[in-house]
Write a structure and sequence with these properties.
heterodimer; A: 147 residues; mainly alpha; 8 helices; 82% helix; extended; B: 118 residues; 6 helices; 0% strand
C-alpha cells in the first residue's frame, strides 16, 4: 500500500486521536505542581539542616535528578509521563529522564557510540543553547561594567 | 505559603507547556531548549530573579530555572573575576546538576537494560 505524506497524516490522526486538552492540561498541572512541591519540601529539609540557600538549591536539583534517573531506570518514569505529558517533561526530572532514557536504551549499540553519544540527543541542544546564551549574557554584563 | 506557591506556579508552567505542545507538536528537545534559553533571557531582563524570590521551587524546578541558574552564575562570575567569568560562570553554577545527570545516567546505563516493556 502506497501512501502520500498527506494520506498517512490523515490515517495517523484517525488512528491516534490526540488526548483532549481537558485531560492533558490538568494532568500536566497536577504532576508538574507536585514535582515542584516535592522540590520545595526537599529544599526546606536542606535549609533546616543548615545548608546555605545556594547549596540547598543545587542539592534540590541533584536530588530531583537522582529521582528522575532512578524512575527512568526502573521504567516507571515513562508510565507517569504518558499520563502527565509536560508535567514530567518541563521539571528538572524531565531533563534527567531525557539523558538517562537514551543512555539505557542505546547501550546495545555500544558504550561509546551508543550510551555516551545518544545520551545527549536531547540534552545536547539544551546545553549548547543554554551555555551560549549564558555566555552572551555574561559578555553583556562585562561590557556593561567596562563601559 | 511557599509550598502552595511552588505547587501552583510549577503546575501553571507545566500546564502552559502542555498547551504549547498540544497546539504546536513541538518535540521535547525543542521545548527544553526553548525553556532553558527563555530562562536566561528572562533573568537577563531582570524578571526571573524576583519571580524566583516569590515562587521558590515553582520557578527553579522547571527547566527555566536551569537557564536562570546559568545566567545568574555568569553575571556573578563577571563581577568577581571579570571577562573569563562570562565563560565560566554559567557552567560553574549549573555544574552539580549537569554532572549528576550525566554520571547517574551513565551508571544507570551500565546496570539497567532497555528494550520492550516488562
Amino acid at each position: 500500500m502506497k501512501l502520500s505524506t498527506e494520506e498517512y497524516k490523515k490515517l495517523w490522526q484517525k488512528k491516534s486521536p490526540p488526548s483532549p486538552w481537558y485531560k492533558t492540561v490538568p494532568a500536566a498541572f497536577l504532576t508538574g505542581g507536585l514535582i515542584c512541591l516535592l522540590g520545595q519540601g526537599i529544599k526546606s529539609g536542606f535549609l533546616s539542616a543548615g545548608l546555605s540557600e545556594k547549596v540547598s538549591s543545587a542539592a534540590v536539583s541533584c536530588s530531583l535528578i537522582l529521582l528522575g534517573v532512578s524512575l527512568t531506570a526502573l521504567r516507571i518514569y515513562d508510565d507517569i509521563a504518558r499520563f502527565a505529558g509536560a508535567g514530567t517533561l518541563v521539571p528538572i526530572t524531565g531533563f534527567a529522564n531525557s539523558i538517562a532514557a537514551p543512555a539505557i536504551e542505546f547501550k546495545t549499540e555500544g558504550f561509546i557510540l551508543g550510551a555516551c553519544v545518544k545520551m545527549f540527543t536531547i540534552a545536547g541542544p539544551v546545553l549548547t543553547l543554554a551555555v551560549t546564551s549564558s555566555v552572551i549574557y555574561g559578555v553583556i554584563c562585562w561590557l556593561g561594567g567596562v563601559l | 505559603m511557599i509550598f502552595i506557591k511552588a505547587f501552583l506556579v510549577g503546575g501553571a508552567i507545566c500546564a502552559l507547556s502542555q498547551i504549547l505542545i498540544d497546539k504546536t507538536r513541538l518535540t521535547p528537545a525543542r521545548i527544553l531548549s526553548f525553556y532553558a534559553v527563555l530562562g536566561v533571557v528572562l533573568t537577563a531582563a531582570g524578571v526571573y530573579g524576583p519571580f524566583v524570590e516569590w515562587a521558590g521551587c515553582g520557578a527553579t524546578v522547571p527547566i527555566l530555572g536551569f537557564g536562570y541558574t546559568m545566567a545568574q552564575g555568569a553575571r556573578e562570575a563577571v563581577g568577581t573575576v571579570g571577562f573569563t567569568g562570562a565563560l565560566s560562570g554559567g557552567l560553574s553554577a549549573a555544574s552539580a546538576g549537569i554532572a549528576a545527570a550525566v554520571t547517574l545516567s551513565f551508571l544507570a546505563s551500565l546496570v539497567f537494560r532497555g528494550g520492550n516493556k516488562r
